[in-house]
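Students often ask why we bother encoding 3D structure as a string. The short answer is that it lets us treat folding as translation between two languages. Here is a chain of 1069 residues written in the first language.
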Amino acid sequence: MRVAQQRLAGAGASTTAPSLTPGLRQAGALRCTASAGGLARSGRRLAAAWTGSRAGLLRSVLAPAAPGRRALAAQAVAAPAAAPAASFPKEAHGFELVQQQFVREYDSQVLLYRHKKTGAELISVVNADENKTFGAVFRTPVSDSTGIPHILEHSVLCGSRRYPIKEPFVELMKGSLNTFLNAFTYPDRTCYPVASTNTQDFYNLVDVYLDAVLHPRCVADRQTFEQEGWHLELDDPSAPLSYKGVVFNEMKGVYSSPDSMFYRVVQQALFPDNTYRHDSGGDPEVIPQLTFEQFQEFHAKYYHPSNGRFWFYGDDDPTKRLALLDAYLGEFEARPVDSEVATQPLLPEPRTVTAHYAAGDSEDGDGKAYAAVNWVLTSEPLDVETELALGFLDYLLLGTPAAPLRKALNDSSLGAALVGGGIDDELKQPIFSVGLKGVDPGSVGKVEALVLDQLNQLSVAGFTPGAVEAAVNTIEFSLRENNTGSFPRGLSLMLRAVGAWIYGRDPYTPIQWEDALSHFKARLSGGDDVFGPLITKYLLNNPHRVTVVMLPDTALAAKTEADEKARLDAIRAKLSEDDLKQVVEETAALKERQETPDSPEALACIPSLKLSDIPKAITTVPTSLSSRDGGATLLSHELFTNDVLYAEAALDMTGLPPALLPLVPLFSRSLTQMGTASESFVQLTERIGRKTGGLSVYPFTSAKRGQDQPVAYLMVRGKAMGHNSGDLFTLMGDILATARLDDRARFTQMVAETKAGLEAGIIGSGHRFAGSRLAAQRSVAGWVSESMGGLSYLEYVRGLAKRVEEDWEGVQADLEAIRSHLLQRKGAIVNLTGDERALSAAQAHVDDLLSRLPGTAALSGAAGGWQGALPRVNEALVVPTQVNYVGKAANLYADAGYSLSGAAYVIEKHLGTSWLWDKVRVVGGAYGGFCSFDSHSGMFTYLSYRDPNLLDTLAAYDGTPGFLRDLSLDADGLTKAIIGTMGDLDAYQLPDAKGYSALSRYLLGVSDEERQARRDQVLGTTLKDFKEFADVVACVSGDAGRVVAVTSADKAAAVLAERPDFWEVRKVL
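And here it is in the second language, the structure alphabet:
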């Protein structure tokens, strides 16, 4: 997956639910995924941070999202009726219409075309969605784990026939209004999607991508293969030989994550006989076996229109789509392409597979095992109603913390957290996987026994009527709402259709669920035993069951490093002096090419918009503000939502004693996961499912420009149909006022899950922990956020686990104290987003909710607000990893006296797509290098992701001021930088996101007048602004800058050997 410009989550706001950047900008999408992880993307984790999709109908119904989380489903946005069938050409531009259907689930005409000359297929979806989407998909099965499709996915975007520059992808990031720009490598296919709301920009993106996949320069350019894939690097004949390459280092990061390794082992164990037994993303041990000639052959074989499936979606001209595509496809002739994905024969009997993962030797690490039971469900395609029924079954088994199989695993005390996540149907054959991590190695057999026992019981006893009703309401709400968050609706629909289309099945089937849903509900209403037979057939009586056990190995990380060194030493031993000299010369030649910029004349080939195409005025959200009795405030935003009401209730947290802050995230979970005074945890969960589309509670914190104290609220967020708004607010009131906080066993499990998640996170997302740690050194807001989500929080949770055992009464008293501090009408804010009907229905119920809050808090906080910050020191956070996450930061307001200008956004964007991209990623070999400027706190932070380097990366950061001072940017380059920034400012949003952004701006005191002023500054940015900013950002390179890196013990020690006393080393795992 390509890594595009990334920003620190929330740009200053911290929240445990996916959030939009509060204030002036929308968050730049974290447009990257871990490739080759079909099963790694399994479970009910919706892909907000790192993934592309949950393809397929099964997964589309698995995880109805809590508010703010995306759910793949049917369109709730009003759209005029699609154009009549007669208006669509049956034959044009080399295409013939094969099938046309009106898909009412998405209010869309869906046209299936065949390209007569090549046999390529096209699905053209015509509707009123302005967020237009295009995708090119090729079936790319593999026969080894060299990562060839993954390397190719990176490489084709590095220049093409019509766009012969180093990285058209980066130029598009710089100067496009895209709402999505990336590529995905699956275990058996490769996808190249783009999206934009601007029609000309959209066609520009499509043209660049089509030229890239069909006519890439990389197939004749060994240096691109070496840069993106792998090469031997040697700067001096006497220096150690090393491997470098973007994908090579990306996959080292993947293989450092125990969770990622677990899903890889599961995939290989379940599919021992077909392409899925290999890692399409690449095994770092195997990647260096790939030759350039194999790379060329793979593209020639699979990247042909006869093996292609293409997708258009949105409100653009359907005939122009055909012409644009035929301009490329017409150059080719049809030919057979053998890319069929073989079906895995079902195993005749269950088996067990044991593997190992690299574990740390810290006393705080668990040193425990993974254990999961896994099935391939079928060798034959499923009909749509069976798919739908299995999706419901999966939700009933695992979809909520109260679901019986999930609850049984959690309550068993056998492990710390769930793994596996249920059904995954991204591959040709669906699988089911469930188990635990943090298991005592002596108890792994008990996990399998528990899973099978629970399934046996449920196959006979079934599910309660309340659970079934909740599942039906939740899933149907999700399907009809179609809230895909920042992920384009057209892309989520494409990936769902491709899940069948790629295997020669009907692509219409996964996107037409209405009739199957109606029939399924009728069967339930008629009393049919729907779920018992499914459990029996696809799980209990299915012999294709593999129990995967993964054991910790504290020596494995060192062995992996030693094995790589031994391979390199063996290669070096075979090289003559002339051979070594040649490697040095090739290394230097590659770096020279990487560091030589394209000329302005060459860059002019990339199509771009003009500044005149960009609206001068901001887009505002209609907002009505009113006061409520007791000092509460109501914000309302009238937007079309098809009678869905989105609501947030925000309670001021700033009166909370600092010692209680780290407990707030677990307090938030407790409100919905322990039951209320009148109902059990299971009953509460079912009521939420029956009456709403989801309910979540989380802390929201952010710095606020011009003040030392942060903005901090407990956010209760929910959504429901307008006629159920009373139920939604009653639920909010119930969990706030009457939630039980006395379930010791449940709380113990939540602590264990939190600890496991944080320990996995610091290995897989070390940049987030490094950035959080740096922010906590400089502001109270950063310190608060770190104490509720960073390393400090992990340390707190480790201590809390022991405290729950020894002093549960004290912990419970602290939970009650948090409630007593937070519950009050004074300062409470209710935020509503909906159409007129939904808002009208909700008005009376708002006061009902507020009336349940005491006028003032039962307990008062300490006077003077919060005071806190981490020591300003350089830190190495040591974990078992093969890669590094390197951060460096300073505060531009405090350290450089900077006054905010919108030009800073343009400069930040440009740095991430030029200097840092080139130095950290292209030359350095890291998977990502970027910077983030938090305009609320003033923090300017550099971060790298899956980085092989430490000191070299810091040197690149420190070179930023010089780069800016020497920058030569012509008018076209400056225009692209501004337009790319405007794409972030004007990020596409669905109605709930617009209402939430308006709330965030209100909380942070960002007025529309200020937003307009910043927009004017962005549009008026000059080269002079870049050069002046060099003196500002120089503070990060100077004495004010601090470094935090997540790294290995050996690499941390190597830095100290070169720079004594450079940093403090903290062993985390």
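Translate back mentally: The radius of gyration is 28 Å. Keep this in mind for the problem set.
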